[in-house]
Write a structure and sequence with these properties.
Layout: H1 2-21, E1 33-36, E2 46-51, E3 57-62, E4 67-68, E5 72-80, E6 83-90, H2 92-104, E7 110-115, E8 119-123, E9 135-138, H3 144-166
Length: 167
Amino acid sequence: MKTRLLWFNLFLAVAFITGCTTTGVKSEKSTLRLHFEIDAANNDRIASVPIFRANPMFLNVEREYVCDERNVSAASIIDQPGGFAIQIQLDRQGTWRLEQSSLTHKGKHLAVFSHFGEARWLAAPVIHKIISNGRIIFTPDATREESERIVRGLNNGVKKNSFQESL
């Protein structure tokens, strides 16, 4: 009886230790919210948000977001001359939503918000044309380490979402 109890306690100790070590990078999650800029005339639907921490630029954006992290099919960091950018690829539903919204908000900003341990408005690129491929590339107001954390957290969510969809 004592031997079984010893093995059971040993099993619990190993499970606890390995369980604690796997909760680091794999459990990181990031959120993503895409909001379009709108005119200040629609007071009940807007929020004024600060973009860029060093020199904040305030934008009036729709409170309701167009896409979120559930619409992300892949996220990555890409190197560009003089720095880096975050590239987000949306799924089919997100691509359709972004295409429809970019058609009606052409010439406006697309405000990008993320919560990655810290909640922050990351960027607000101007939409010059209809985005029909579901791909967004933006230079974030974040360090490379923060951007890697955001991308890692989004991709962890993609893996979880694809696993749940396959059930």
